[in-house]
Amino acid sequence: MSRHVVRIVLLLVAATVGTGNREASAGFLIGSTFHVVGTNTPTTFTQDVVLSVGTTLIDGDRLTLTQSFFHIGNSDWLNLRFEATQGLLSTNRNIPWGMNVSNVQLTTPELYSAKMAYWTIAGEPAEPIYPFGQFRPILPNPLDPEGRNVYLAYLQGTNLVTSLTQNAGPFTPSYSNILDGGMDPGKVTGFNMAFQITPAVPEPSSVVSGVMGGVILALVKLRRSRAAGARVLGRNRI
């Protein structure tokens, strides 16, 4: 193996280490605002929220909203957890219920590749859980694979987007469709939704790793070919 080729391989290794994986929140425009519309959750309200890591109070301090970011594989997730600060998420079973989030802004156009949602009781995904209406299929939670199943839909769209929207409801009284899903509105204290985005092109580290792998494989084949040629030459000299 020539010194020149060895130098190329070492440079590729260094490039891979240097690029690494992007931060979990890199695809989301931190500091921008997104729009939350709650219907009977526990009041009806409209509020703009700053996109950031951490927990904030909304709906007149009646709800906590916790924002978390995750980087899994080649995708990024934004997880939004709404929890009532006192009592139930819905306080009036005689009016519709809904939770809508819109204008979650991205730093660059990306693929909106999946969305997730589930109701919670004391912070844990509600059980049992059955498919109903827009909420299907039921799959393991990619952010908590050992936890309870959730509503998770992988989107097949190929169009790039610069902002995200997810709507739950509105559900009309007496919330029979939510009951069909296994959730008792008389016990639910929170609602969770999450967004997955995927870059339109591979991350630099993935590209470099692929190139490096190809170079190493080619070098191995070249070395084996030279070794085989040397053996043949040796036999011819005997």
Describe the overall structure.
- By secondary structure, the protein is an alpha+beta fold.
- The chain has 2 domains: 1-20 and 203-220, no CATH class; 33-198, no CATH class.
- It is built from 3 helices and 11 strands.
- The chain has helices at 3-19, 176-180, 204-237, and strands at 33-39, 45-50, 54-58, 63-72, 75-84, 97-121, 124-125, 138-140, 149-154, 160-171, 190-198.
- Strands 1, 2, 3, 4, 5, 6, 7, 8, 9, 10 and 11 form an 11-stranded antiparallel β-sheet that branches.
- The protein is globular and about 75 Å long.
Helix and strand topology:
Blueprint: H1 3-19, E1 33-39, E2 45-50, E3 54-58, E4 63-72, E5 75-84, E6 97-121, E7 124-125, E8 138-140, E9 149-154, E10 160-171, H2 176-180, E11 190-198, H3 204-237
Antiparallel strand pairs: 1-2, 1-6, 3-4, 4-5, 5-11, 6-7, 6-9, 6-10, 6-11, 8-9
Helix pairs in contact: 1-3
